[in-house]
Write a sequence for this structure.
């Protein structure tokens, strides 16, 4: 796993540690290393927790890392905690099988992922949000581009994200070609720009995120997720394929290195107390993705305005 120090978050340590809260006495001198995975929601949550740990007296370093690889990192001890999306539950839980990583608990933030479209697409694909509307020939034609013809274009997230788009397209016999975005911001920009121009578009949506939580669009409705859907072809409408269901919804979770939790009781207690709500971070996400605020600046402002929230985790 290749890790790179993020220049923008290097400034963060100095910014948030300046907040006037008495530090607890901790013996650990080695830093707690935290991955940033190029997703605003995950990274904001990771840095808020890291900022609380800093105010408890810990040193915290942030590094850039691949989302999936971060779960290997917390097992080896190269990384110390990461944020898990419910839709990748199998990946998250597999990191605990060695006994070197643990599910510390929910962040309190709810999550949803899946096929998302702007409401204007209903003109070309009548019947949405039901997934069967995507089988309509006129709908497919409207979503087809020169790059994907004769298939419809599906705007995916970055290539290192875990998105069962191809598997779902096969299971539901939907003629779509997934096209990866260079970043989370590029994904949102592509979909939102097309929507503003009135162009047909569909892609990967996820919440918490200011745009995908807006009334500008909605998720396609597939059969409800069940664990067997991903492992047993006999489950569901297609007896020859898995993934004939929607994406699992739920929460964002904190997974951490077991050795850190055992050796650092204060850090473990803070992680277990760590709890947020959907409404508490909506403005932070929007300030970064819409207003262009730097990640470190947005988190520092949140920490300053919500001292009562995070100080309860460290007291």
């Amino acid at each position: 796993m290749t890790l790179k120090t993020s220049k923008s978050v290097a400034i963060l340590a100095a910014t948030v540690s300046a907040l006037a809260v008495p530090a607890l006495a901790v013996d650990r001198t080695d830093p707690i290393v935290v991955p940033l995975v190029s997703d605003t929601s995950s990274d904001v949550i990771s840095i808020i927790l890291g900022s609380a740990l800093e105010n408890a007296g810990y040193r915290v370093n942030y590094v850039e890392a691949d989302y999936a690889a971060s779960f290997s990192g917390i097992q080896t001890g190269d990384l110390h905690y990461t944020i898990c999306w419910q839709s990748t539950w199998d990946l998250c839980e597999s990191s605990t099988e060695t006994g070197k990583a643990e599910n510390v608990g929910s962040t309190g933030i709810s999550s949803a992922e899946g096929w998302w479209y702007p409401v204007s697409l209903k003109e070309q694909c009548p019947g949405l949000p039901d997934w069967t509307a995507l089988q309509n020939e006129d709908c497919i034609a409207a979503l087809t581009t020169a790059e994907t013809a004769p298939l419809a274009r599906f705007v995916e997230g970055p290539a290192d994200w875990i998105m069962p788009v191809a598997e779902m397209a096969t299971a539901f016999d939907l003629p779509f070609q997934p096209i990866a975005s260079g970043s989370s911001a590029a994904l949102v920009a592509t979909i939102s720009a097309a929507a503003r121009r009135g162009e047909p578009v569909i892609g990967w949506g996820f919440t918490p995120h200011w745009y995908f939580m807006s009334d500008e669009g909605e998720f396609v409705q597939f059969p409800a997720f069940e664990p067997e859907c991903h492992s047993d072809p006999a489950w569901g409408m297609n007896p020859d394929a898995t993934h004939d269901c929607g994406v699992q919804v739920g929460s964002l979770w904190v997974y951490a290195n077991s050795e850190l939790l055992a050796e650092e009781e204060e850090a473990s207690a803070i992680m277990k107390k760590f709890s947020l709500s959907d409404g508490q971070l909506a403005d932070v996400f929007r300030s970064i993705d819409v207003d262009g605020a730097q990640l470190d600046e947005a988190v520092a402002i949140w920490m300053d305005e919500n001292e009562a929230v995070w100080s309860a985790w460290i007291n």
Summary: Confidence is low (pLDDT under 50) at residues 1-23. The longest strand covers residues 101-118.
